[in-house]
Amino acid sequence: MRSRRGSGQPATRTSLRCAIYARKSSEKGLEQEFNSLDAQWKACEAYIRSQRHEGWSLLPTRYDDGGLSGSSMNRPALQRLLADVAAGRVDLVVVYKFDRLTRSLADFAKIVEVLDGHGASFVSIT
């Protein structure tokens, strides 16, 4: 059974609502039918499917920031994602690589604070 970080208590929920966050820092290639954001999404989607036995389920909403740097938290999809975490709609944020979430340790601490404050967590699949 999964335990909540820091509480030492088993989680009572039987399913984890998973949201995928994808980011690409440049706009180059985003116009292609299948681009880097799609590749990140597909890899994360496959990982979530592989964890179905643990109760993971993919939320349909896409949180994609194309053409935006990871050095700032001023990204529309990231802000929507954090708002959905705060609203209790997301239990687990899944990213392809840690640096897709942020490139700033200070911002990472802020993101983790939001996640922890609402009983959510994140996982990087690579």
Give a quick precis of the structure:
One of its GO terms (molecular function) is DNA strand exchange activity. By secondary structure, the chain is α/β, with parallel strands linked by helices.
Provide structural commentary.
The protein is of the alpha/beta class and 126 residues long. It has one domain (16-124): Rossmann fold (3-Layer(aba) Sandwich), CATH 3.40.50. It is 34% helix and 19% strand. It is built from 4 helices and 5 strands, in the order βαββαβααβ. The protein has helices at residues 36-50, 76-86, 98-101, 105-117, and strands at 16-24, 56-58, 63-66, 92-95, 121-124. Strands 1, 2, 3, 4 and 5 form a 5-stranded parallel sheet that branches. Strand 1 (16-24), helix 1 and strand 2 form a beta-alpha-beta unit. One of its GO terms (molecular function) is DNA binding. It comes from Neoroseomonas lacus. InterPro entries: Resolv_N, Resolvase-like_N_sf, SSR_resolvase. This is Resolvase/invertase-type recombinase catalytic domain-containing protein. It holds the Pfam family Resolvase.
Helices and strands in order, then pairings?
Blueprint: E1 16-24, H1 36-50, E2 56-58, E3 63-66, H2 76-86, E4 92-95, H3 98-101, H4 105-117, E5 121-124
Parallel strand pairs: 1-2, 1-3, 1-4, 4-5
> Helix proportion of residues, in percent?
25-40%
Q: From the alpha carbons, calculate the radius of gyration and give it in angstroms.
A: 14 Å
Please report the first level of CATH classification, the CATH class: Alpha Beta
Order of helices and strands: EHEEHEHHE
Shape, please? globular
Count of domain modules: 1
- Termini separation comes to 23 Å
The named CATH superfamily: Resolvase, N-terminal catalytic domain
The pLDDT mean sits at: 87
Number of E-type strands: 5
Overall CATH architecture: 3-Layer(aba) Sandwich
How would a textbook summarize the main sheet? 5 strands, parallel
Task: Enumerate the spans where pLDDT stays under 50 for 5 or more consecutive residues.
Answer: 1-11
